[in-house]
Amino acid sequence: MEIGCVEINNLLPTGKTFHKYVNPTHPVHKEAFAVHGLSNEFLKTKPTFRRVVNQFLTFIGDARLVAHNASFDLGMINDELERLDMPPLQNDIVDTVEIAKAKRPGKRATLDALCSAFNIDTSKRTLHGALLDAELLSEVYVELRGGRQYGLSLLGEDNAPITIDQLPAARQRPVPLPPRITAEEREAHAAFIQTLGGEVIWKEYR
Question: Does this model's pTM top 0.85?
Fold first, then answer.
């Protein structure tokens, strides 16, 4: 009934999204309507999966897909592809439920629970919506990967960790930049430091 995708690159959103409502061609169950709020009257005006499938496949291309309880989403999409005599998705799949269970054993791994654990704002989420859920999941995925604070642990071509001493030396400027302060300013600063008295740390810097 609804497809929502958010593109991220290097754990940052690119701003590209894909969102379509889809006519399921059969009535919506009352229990499902209570979850997503998409009525039969609303959905019957939307295109069928056959009409949007190529747009969807073009958007995802061969990218790695991240999904919450991925087997459910993958099963639904592949069933629809099979009905259209199209091959199943061959993309690499990352299941954030499995990552969450490994990183937070014994704790709930629902999207709501993870948003709460990582202080992600869900105030706009009164009902389940594919695009909004994808946006929230992209934030959860970033947090499960350690957030956007990159460390100094790098991987080489063989995925072996690279230590700091293996990194190439920083390039030096052939001509050093001129100082940004004058000799008079340097002397005035030194004189001020002397007025602080005691063994202040600033006396160790020149």
Answer: no
